[in-house]
Amino acid sequence: MSLIEVQALSKSYRNTIKEPGVKGAFKHLIHPKYEDKVAVSHVSFTVERGEKVAYIGSNGAGKSTTIKMLTGILLPTSGKISVNGLDPHKNRIENTKNIGVVFGQRTQLWWDIPIIESFKLLKDIYEIPGPMYKKNLEIFCDILGMEQFIHQPARKLSLGQRMRADIAASLLHNPPILYLDEPTIGLDVAVKEKVHEFLNYINKEKKTTILLTSHDLADIEKICDRIIIIDQGTVIYDDTIQKIKGELISERKINALIEDTGNVLEEKLKNLPVTVIREDTNKVSILFSQNEIAAVTILENMLQITGIQDFSIEEPGLEQLIKKVYNGTFLIS
Amino acid sequence: MKKYISLFKCAVQETMIYRWNFFFGILSKFAVTIVMFYIWRIMFKSNQIIAGYTWESMKVYLFVSFLCTSTISWNAEMSMSKKVIQGNIIADLIKPVNLRTVTLVQAIGNSFFSNLCAIGIMFYCAIFIFKVSLPTDFQIWISFLISIGLSFLLNFILSYIFSLFSFWTSNAYGIATARSTISNFFSGALVPFELFPPLLARIAFLLPFKGIVYIPTSIFIGTLSGSEIYHALMGQTIWLMVLWGISNLLWKQAVQQVTINGG
């Protein structure tokens, strides 16, 4: 059995509809109207122990709702969830011992008391053995660089500090599963890197399964090895990151700075499956597909007729890929 | 158990951070009682006895009613509703804790020191300034202490039940106001039941609110005696158990209603 099993999971919210103006407000008071909005619809997936999964989609796609159902906070409208063999909503308290949760937009730290006091409280709440708590705290402080602010109350921390403290807080009890809902929202690059390093460390050392939602593709590329894309409440892609890159796009672009040799280059490459774009007398871009020709072959051909001062190969970022998946311009097998 | 003791310590720490808030919190506890004190004093200027109360026994009534109603602060009452509405209840729901116990412990912790100070000051004023005569019978003190303990729990469970409604209404202030108005009236915190019209008095006796002020106060003053005290304490206990059960049922419904707005 997989660690996390989600089967045909659906959730709809009941929203009130209010007509505009005072009249509408009055009408709403007497006779409220509702509509059901489907947030998640028949989502199924499984996650194995130790996997690092990115759960992504555009705003309002249903990511957070899924996470909240997995944590047991929200009751699914229909469908089945099993986390470590438990139904998270029915066995909420039992389930919480297996999971760590970080909601980037909220904090679970006490606002007015020092971070270290919040941690001590968590130690007692999760009944963490003394040595384990001490060891975890030491390692977390070290990797996340928390020494300077651990004696400050949460309200005095910067966003980056607070987020690091929140991530540490969610992992003190060594949960086998970690859910992160936009853990790097609003963080600077240096802090993001610390967070990436830390999550990879945790996954490697403790085999913690990570399920993460994010709009930041650096998070996904640096941490995750699998990607689930949902759109309008349904799963539209679920595979490894390597595969999405290989399968969806094999296009590459060589940018080269060459000697001024006139049109010889175009002549030379005429019979190869490439498109040459001359941007300047000594600056060219060459578009090709990795499946049809290797970059080395192109370079060899070029070197036969011209010197190359500088070159780079661009591969499309995950961002562009995902944009294409959203737009439906790419077929998904 | 240890987790709740730690939680209590954190809740106590939390209230001590904002000093002025703390001091004004204590002051505000006295405001209503002081107003009531002077209103009654004027009334007793023209009457020796009102509905069976002398000025002496009315002073005791006000004193004890202060003790009973000040145990749960307005903030503690609002905190649960606020958590539900602002979505911070998430932080509690992802932890292995019982939400009612958390709320109870936080309510006690948040009002612990301010209550201790307020009760101390009130005892001082009652004995040395207003010359309230305290009971001398040891048994009355024992039953009174049990009764005020039950009063505290009743007060808590009622405000907890009302705050659970915020899962449906998405509004905290209205619910807390409604509760405290109903509770103040039907507990006898504003006026003793003896002054109610007969019909209202009968209703008041049927409701659980009487256990918050009227019963402990009556024990303290001595209007109840012997087996009456015993019955009154039993009444408080039974109501407490019934309401505890209701809060369980309500919680099961409420937790299915959770919708976390935003994010």
From TrEMBL, chain A:
Domain ABC transporter, chain residue ranges per copy: 4-257
Transferase among keywords: no
Keyword set includes ATP-binding: yes
Keyword line: ATP-binding, Nucleotide-binding, Transport
One Pfam family per UniProt: ABC_tran
GO MF term (any one): ATP binding
Protein name: ATP-binding cassette domain-containing protein
UniProtKB/TrEMBL annotation, chain B:
Transmembrane segments: 20-40, 60-76, 112-134, 140-168, 189-209, 229-251
Keyword Cell inner membrane: no
Key words of the record: Membrane, Transmembrane, Transmembrane helix
Pfam families xrefs: ABC2_membrane_6 (PF06182)
Annotated InterPro entries: ABC-2_transporter-like
Superkingdom as given in the UniProt entry: Bacteria
Protein name (database record): ABC-2 family transporter protein
Organism: Zhenhengia yiwuensis
